């Protein structure tokens, strides 16, 4: 019954934060019926309650719920759900997936960066990613344009293991140019999504997605970040969640790396050589 309730929560037109509040309410009362009994206790306004009541009575949610039960899912109740992900603020209650869930039990590192990848960043990644693969790391990124897709391709080119956490449902890909890459990762690696399979991209999906990338690992590489960027959002989440934040050096005169140097000022660790990371982790 709990699993059905979690899947039902994913159908509700509410925010991640609201979904977490409802789940906490249900756990406290052992109340897992697919109804709206929690609305007042969970602080929904009159307007929000009216919208939810309309959704509940006018949407064929029981049909959608039946469909979701046939989609591969990982819930926060499952043994395979990573402990480190469970510990973040507002962990995803359900993840839809395609691929090999056993990769979640391997040692991991996340690598993220800008969509406009600089030549210096590309050169460093081409040297460092193969070493991470040789060291047995599963590399996590977001299958976005730029750094993310380069990282995934470099890992796959070394026959390594990679996990893509995407900001759409599994039936979609953003950007569309990465569709073949996403499909291949789903066949040989793992693709994860918090969103219903039929959901396309929304602007707020990507910062929400970033907390999952951070939650899946203890180590996050920032290899290129402008001051105002999605990469900086990921870095801030990593700092908030007490993850190890590593910054790859860049050109101090290039604004494409301005955010990276801000992170160094805030105490992020500088990586001069990837062995600084791999040897340090081997000694832990």
How does this structure look, described?
This protein is of the alpha/beta class and 284 residues long. The chain has two domains: 2-70, no CATH class; 99-282, Rossmann fold (3-Layer(aba) Sandwich), CATH 3.40.50. It is 44% helix and 13% strand. The chain has twelve helices and nine strands. It has helices at residues 2-11, 16-29, 46-58, 61-68, 83-86, 119-134, 147-157, 179-188, 205-215, 230-240, 258-265, 274-282; strands at residues 73-75, 94-99, 108-112, 138-141, 162-166, 190-193, 219-222, 244-247, 269-270. The radius of gyration is 20 Å and the shape is globular. The mean pLDDT is 92.
Task: Give the secondary structure arrangement, pairings included.
Elements: H1 2-11, H2 16-29, H3 46-58, H4 61-68, E1 73-75, H5 83-86, E2 94-99, E3 108-112, H6 119-134, E4 138-141, H7 147-157, E5 162-166, H8 179-188, E6 190-193, H9 205-215, E7 219-222, H10 230-240, E8 244-247, H11 258-265, E9 269-270, H12 274-282
Parallel strand pairs: 3-4, 3-7, 4-5, 5-6, 7-8, 8-9
Antiparallel strand pairs: 1-2, 2-6
Helix pairs in contact: 1-4, 6-7, 9-10
CATH topology tier name of the largest domain: Rossmann fold
The share of residues in helices is: 40-55%
Task: Give average pLDDT, whole number.
Answer: 92
Distance between the termini: 41 Å
Architecture of the largest domain, CATH level 2?
Answer: 3-Layer(aba) Sandwich
**Order of neighbouring strands in the sheet with most strands:** 1-2-6-5-4-3-7-8-9
Estimated radius of gyration? 20 Å
> Which blocks of ≥5 consecutive residues have pLDDT under 50?
none
Strand content: 5-15%
User: Would you tell me the structural class of the helices and strands?
Assistant: alpha/beta
> What form results from the Cα inertia axes?
globular
Q: Largest sheet at a glance? A: 9 strands, mixed
Which H/E pattern describes the elements? HHHHEHEEHEHEHEHEHEHEH
Q: Which CATH top level class of the largest domain fits?
A: Alpha Beta
Treating each run of at least 4 consecutive H or I residues as one helix, how many helices?
12
């Amino acid at each position: 019954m709990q699993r059905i309730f979690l899947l039902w929560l994913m159908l509700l037109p509410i925010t991640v934060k609201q979904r977490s509040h409802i789940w906490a309410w249900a756990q406290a009362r052992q109340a897992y019926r697919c109804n709206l009994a929690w609305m007042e206790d969970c602080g929904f306004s009159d307007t929000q309650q009216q919208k939810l009541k309309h959704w509940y009575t006018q949407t064929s949610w029981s049909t959608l719920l039946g469909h979701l039960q046939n989609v591969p899912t990982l819930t926060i109740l499952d043994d395979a759900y990573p402990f480190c992900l469970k510990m973040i603020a507002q962990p995803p209650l359900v993840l839809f997936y395609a691929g090999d869930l056993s990769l979640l039990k391997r040692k991991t590192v996340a690598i993220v960066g800008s969509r406009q990848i600089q030549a210096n960043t590309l050169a460093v990644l081409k040297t460092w990613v193969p070493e991470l693969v040789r060291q047995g790391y599963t590399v996590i990124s977001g299958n976005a344009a730029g750094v993310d897709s380069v990282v995934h391709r470099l890992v796959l080119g070394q026959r390594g293991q990679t996990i893509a956490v995407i900001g759409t449902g599994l039936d979609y890909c953003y950007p569309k140019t990465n569709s073949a890459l996403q499909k291949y990762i789903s066949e040989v690696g793992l693709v994860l999504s918090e969103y219903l399979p039929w959901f396309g991209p929304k602007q707020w999906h990507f910062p929400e997605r970033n907390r999952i990338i951070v939650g899946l690992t203890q180590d996050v590489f920032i290899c290129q970040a402008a001051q105002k960027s999605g990469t900086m959002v990921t870095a801030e989440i990593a700092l908030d969640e007490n993850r190890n934040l590593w910054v790859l050096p860049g050109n101090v005169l290039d604004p494409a790396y301005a955010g990276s140097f801000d992170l160094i000022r805030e105490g992020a660790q500088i990586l001069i050589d990837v062995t600084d990371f791999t040897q340090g982790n081997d000694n832990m």
